[in-house]
Amino acid sequence: xxxxxxxxxxxxxxxxxxxxxxxxxxxxxxxxxxxxxxxxxxxxxxxxxxxxxxxxxxxxxxxxxxxxxxxxxxxxxxxxxxxxxxxxxxxxxxxxxxxxxxxxxxxxxxxxxxxxxxxxxxxxxxxxx
Length: 129
Description:
Blueprint: E1 17-20, E2 23-26, H1 35-47, H2 50-55, H3 57-76, H4 84-90, H5 93-128
Antiparallel strand pairs: 1-2
Helix pairs in contact: 1-3, 1-5, 3-4, 3-5
């Protein structure tokens, strides 16, 4: 590859495929179009009263609804049929919980990857000057 080419494809992680309801979902990265929406849902989840959450009831229901919404948001980028309604009809809470944790991990990696790339670019500029 020529020296004047920056290959950004090397930043994308190897695919990690999750199968849910017969659909293959690449969970290895967070599509740019939903990063801020997923982050907003995650912040709502974190803001819930943990004491009330442990008691169950309305707060637990709200947390579950937000979790399903986050899973659906992530999956509909590639599979428009994987709506919130689809998840509620076709998945059990354990499947949703595991997928949600993987979505959170993808979100975290997207932030870490951006920071690492920016630091590498800054270091490259400093050493080339």
